[in-house]
Specification:
Oligomer: single chain
Strand content: 15-25%
CATH topology: Rossmann fold
Shape: globular
Strand order of the largest sheet: 6-5-4-7-8-10-9-11
Number of domains: 1
Largest sheet: 8 strands, mixed
Number of strands: 11
Number of helices: 8
Length: 260
Amino acid sequence: MATSKTPVLPEVNFSDWGDIRYLHLGTEWVQGSMKLDAPFEIELEYVQRMMAWLLFADPKSLASRHAMQLGLGAATLTKFCRKTLRMRTTAVELNPQVVAACRGWFKLPADDPKLRVVIADAALEIRKPEWQGTVDALQVDLYDHEAAAPVLDSEDFYADCRALLTEDGCMTVNLFGRSSSYERSLEKIAGAFGADAVWAFKPTREGNTVVLAQRTPSRPKREALAERAQTIQTRWGLPAPKWLRVFKPLNPTLTRPSGP
């Protein structure tokens, strides 16, 4: 969670249901989850899809790459990038209670030379020169405690996100909301990145719609994407071959679509 204002921060708590632990910010809305017997796996479908940038990345290069999360949630993406992919990983989170909860309840490791958790306003933090052009995989999941709509969702914000990326870097963003904000958000992302740089999933059953934007647009052939998807599933257990059935370019007329 992050915002350019200074709100009253909600209470952080968790609940266990079977073998899953859920993070809550003062409401019943789920802000993240963890398998108790597999704390470094990704349990929620939409969070798995936030890893779709792997379709455009060379698996052999990941150890030298940099991932950044805006909004820590239950630290699922942060843990996966740092522990499973062994990437240099930075997470930006406004609420220090969330960081404490992730360290106490969700197995978030302590900072080390390849992991840094920054307690800051994401809108301000990402404008710092030290981050510009350094991020290969940017994952944006910024919601308030009521999960109504993205907290940071302007074209200027997405332009700042684009400025973080390396030339072949990607941003994935979760656009779930109970309001009809998806199309407006998509327009803002396309305005900042260009329509030819944007890909989108169909919504999950829960209504989360993950959008991917590339710093430099590319249109791999379906065969290349399918091969990369199989590698992702084999190496890291993510259902990437299934992604290709529900993941398409925003402007498919420019090239061959990525799925049937």
